[in-house]
Design brief:
The protein has about 170 residues and is mostly beta strands. It contains two helices and 15 strands. It has a single domain, classed as Alpha-Beta Complex (Outer Surface Protein A, domain 3).
Length: about 170
């Protein structure tokens, strides 16, 4: 009975966005097979909604597949009901905004994608809300605070070699 309520809640959550004739299938169903980034149902690319449930029957995730590939909005929740993530997909890859949350519901990251690649403003947070990384991606290059420590010197190899040679001569 609890599962019936869970599916009814799922339907009401997506009522505005969903096509009413699309099927709903539990992603853990033995007939659902994830292979190479695609979801198959009875060995055929699946079109419709996939959902997962926690052991207690509450909704864990909802996603939409078109011809086996994730497409549109995917949402996941934690056991206590807080949002875990909301992601946008197109043809099986990230396309649009992705937000992920820490277990306590605080925002962990807010990233943007175009055709599976980071594009635009990206922000990542430490617990407590302090910014861990904040940068913009343009044409595949990152500008700003990436939070990455590079293992290289700020000098080019030839400039560094000149400095080493000069110090050896003294």
């Amino acid at each position: 009975m609890k599962r019936v309520y869970a599916v009814m809640i799922l339907l009401s959550l997506f009522a505005c966005d969903m096509q009413h004739d699309e099927p709903w299938v539990n992603a853990y169903d033995s007939d659902v097979t994830p292979i190479g980034g695609k979801y198959l149902l009875h060995n055929e690319p699946y079109t419709g909604y996939l959902y997962t449930l926690f052991d207690n029957g509450d909704t864990s995730s909802i996603m939409y597949c078109n011809k086996g590939k994730l497409d549109g909005v995917a949402k996941g929740w934690m056991k206590k009901g807080q949002l875990k993530y909301i992601a946008h997909f197109k043809d099986g890859i990230y396309h649009g905004n992705l937000k992920e949350y820490f277990n306590d519901g605080e925002l962990f990251r807010d990233f943007n994608y175009v055709n599976g690649r980071e594009q635009g403003m990206q922000t990542m947070y430490w617990k407590g809300g302090e910014v861990r990384a904040h940068y913009e991606v343009k044409n595949g290059r990152k500008y700003g605070l990436t939070g990455i420590k590079n293992c290289s010197t700020p000098f080019s190899d030839s400039a560094m070699q000149l400095l080493i040679n000069a110090s050896l001569q003294n």
